[in-house]
Amino acid sequence: MRSLLYTTFKKASLVALFSIFTILPESLTAAPKARDFRDYYELEPITVTGQEIPITVFARNGSDRRYATKFAHKVVEVAYETLEGTPGPGLVIIGRSGETHPINLFEKFTEKAHAPGSNPELKKIAEELERSFEKWKEKLNFNPDEEQEDEDMPIDPRTLIDAFPMPLTPVAAQLYVMAWEDEFDPERFDLRLSELKVDDLQKQDFQDFKWVFYLPPRNSFNAVLKEVLPLAFEEGNLGPIKRVLARGAIATFKPIIKDAFEGLRKGVLYWSILNENEERFHPGDVEALGAVYIESQMPKGKLIGGDKQGRAIEAVKKQKLVNEEYAKDPFVAPEPLENYQITDFEDFVGTYGDEGHANRVFFIESDSLLWRKGDRDPIEFFPTAEGNFVTADKSATIEFSKADNSETYQVELRQVRARHTFFYKGEPEFENEA
């Protein structure tokens, strides 16, 4: 089952995909080379309800620094309200156009670390880095190397990497520092990786920060669009008139799309900060909070006016109440029985429904207990000692009970953070039957 955060994240990504179509890139005037990465650090603290939260920003010019500071302050304020306390000191690293994205940097590192004859300690570090990256991909349901089968998202995810913000572990941040020292020259960076020692990954002290976040440059979608736009306006897909109209539509809605993209970026930072404080939450709380935060920043077809901060704080307050209620009775998948009589469950066979929902059918076929939604393929459930039924992957349960003042059954479907009751409507009826 795809997460709420993923669903909101994907919708925002689809809106934001063409956001930078008419935005001109910033000046690429080179800044003088600093002697040390930390020479570009500046403390930009924010005070919330009297408590100062230290935020450090790494930026190469004043414009980037002001943008990153304002960006971080807005998110940290909501994170403080969510946590009811400080989220801890953080570091925001804002990238520049033409620089290699951290994902590509540590993919190169892990490839070198896993090569035959490599240092076992480096291999161990690479495995830890891969685990943290896998957690990030799993939480956001984003896998740049996965074959794309989603018709709603026909773009190769790897073309979007340069526009993706992401949290950095100390090792990932150090790899970025090394690439920066090599002026993001791929040959120099590759040579450095070939001669890498464990101590080289510990030169910068990132342990002073509770969270470290990489923020791509504001114009990062420009490079993405060079690859994506030819697909959108491919010869033969649109006629010349429709092509002009499509370009005009993108330009017309640029403020809305840009607003959605910015909300998405803030949502990833918000999720990252909460994830670094996950010991304060029950499992799944962070994902649910991240989803409502992003949703609160979305334009809904028009530019959002008013107080976005207030809207975000109100949304997470409501979700915290939902989380508290869920924690009282969380979804727990029971173990299926090994031995049972299939005929014991014949009384539950039937069609179940509720207004606004597709009908569900519970039926027995080939000695299997099957549950079908609408015209979808059926899912097999197994009886448990608790009296309900569970799927093989333990992602859902169904439980039958007598409806109030009735001899007919009702069935409650439960999944993680979702539950709904359906009522008996009659004998099994399948939607694809004549």
UniProtKB/TrEMBL annotation:
Protein name: Uncharacterized protein
Annotated source species: Pelagicoccus albus
